[in-house]
Design brief:
alpha/beta; 2 domains; 4-stranded mixed β-sheet; 14 helices
Length: 419
């Protein structure tokens, strides 16, 4: 087992480049199951979640070739429609293979997915959609099985919640379904737009991505394409908050600031100087933070994946702030760990009241999930003394070379084996 050792109190300076988006590359890798010829993904991030989804593709019979900074996916050899429990239990996003498998193979049997335990994140929206498209679905003994002998048919599908995963799964299934599919109350995230860009480059006919109504005209065949994934807005936001908390002058490169409007607006309220450029964001901070309220919402609202990091920043605010989580019901697990570092936080249901303290103190803490782990690293950067962060497997799922990038900004952080 490994841990991070962080000696806090050092301002950050310099440039850091954001990697490709985890939440975009995973469905795009899954979408390579659809075409009749190989596809190439350029500059994919080095993440445990990427390794997991690639293992899922290979377990189904697909072949993956690594060449320089590109991954070439040949799924014309896929001959299985059942994914193993061991792989599926690692990550929620692996459930996205159901749509492509139903579309291409007309059958799928998938273990109920795992991942960070930040909420129930039910798959019922996915299953109701597949049933509307003609699939027969059964759930039992830890598995979901679906078949559609006649092939998927287009349908009008209303999502009770604008679920990103359900929108992605339906899009991939509908791309080669028979007829037109309309997704109402669809997710509007940039990662949805990037997936649709990839699907359309393969020959799909999809309109409306980035709005809450997406129309898909099914086509008979898709063909392999090459794609470069958008920058990771959550990684970008994490480095931006790190610079705000620790203080200093940092330029975060490979950023689409349009994707970070809520965060940048809130940083302005918090007294942090933010300068936007075409593909970068510069953060100048003296480490003094004005307490500011946030409420997470589906895109284009404040992202739930930055809630933990923003809360960490509010722990050293100059007053009291309120953090309201509306997306996941169990996303305050980092609160207990932040308290170990001296934070003053009260939780009332889905609302956390954060009373700012003059400084955080180094302590041993554990990453309870991916974004909680990032929040604890940021807290360690700003804290007095030494912070040790354990359970790094969560952080490894979503951050590409995090330690090296922070060290490049002047942070005193190392990764070591536990004693």
């Amino acid at each position: 087992m490994e841990k991070l050792i962080i000696r806090g109190g050092r301002p950050l300076h310099g440039h850091v480049r954001v990697s490709s988006a985890k939440n975009a590359v995973l469905p795009i890798i899954v979408a390579t199951l659809l075409p009749d010829s190989p596809s190439t993904i350029i500059d994919a991030p080095h993440l445990e979640d990427v390794k997991t989804i690639c293992s899922v593709i290979e377990s189904l019979g697909g072949n993956i070739l690594l060449r320089d900074n590109a991954m070439i996916f040949d799924t014309t050899t896929v001959d299985k429609t059942e994914a193993s429990y061991e792989l599926m239990s690692r990550m929620r996003a692996s459930f996205l293979i159901m749509g492509p498998l139903l579309a291409k193979k007309r059958h799928a049997k998938i273990a109920l997915p795992g991942g960070c335990m930040i909420g129930s994140r039910p798959i019922d929206l996915h299953l109701k959609a597949f049933e509307a498209m003609g699939a027969k679905v059964t759930v039992g003994n830890g598995y979901v099985e679906a078949s559609v002998p006649e092939g998927l048919k287009g349908a009008t599908i209303y999502l009770d919640f604008p679920s990103v995963g359900a929108t992605e799964n339906i899009l991939m299934a509908a791309a080669v379904a028979d007829g037109k599919t309309i997704i109402e109350n669809a997710a509007e995230e940039p990662e949805i737009v990037d997936l649709v860009t990839f699907l359309n480059s393969m020959g799909a006919n999809i309109k409306g991505a980035g709005t809450n109504v997406i129309r898909v005209e099914g086509v008979k065949h898709l063909y392999g394409a090459s794609h470069t994934v958008i920058p990771d807005r959550i990684e970008a936001g994490t480095f931006i908050i790190a610079a705000a908390m620790a203080g200093g002058d940092v330029v975060v490169d490979n950023v689409l600031s349009e994707h970070l409007k809520p965060l940048l607006a809130k940083l302005g309220e918090a007294g942090v100087k933010v300068i936007k450029d075409i593909d970068s964001v510069r953060v100048i901070s003296d480490g003094h933070i004005h307490s500011t309220d946030i409420k997470t919402l589906p895109y284009p609202g404040f992202p739930t994946d930055l809630q933990a990091q923003f809360m960490a920043m509010m722990t050293i605010g100059d007053g009291t702030s309120t953090v309201t989580e509306t997306v996941f019901e169990n996303r305050f697990m980092h609160v207990g760990e932040l308290r170990r570092m001296g934070a003053n936080i009260e939780v009332e249901g889905r609302k956390a009241i954060v009373h700012g303290v003059p400084f955080l103190q180094g302590a041993f803490v554990r990453a309870t999930d991916l974004r909680a782990g990032a929040a604890l690293v940021l807290a360690g950067l700003a804290a007095h003394g030494v912070t040790e962060v354990g359970d790094l497997r969560h952080i490894d799922r979503g951050y590409d070379h995090l330690v090296e990038k922070l060290r490049g900004l002047g942070a005193d952080i190392i990764r070591v084996d536990k004693d």
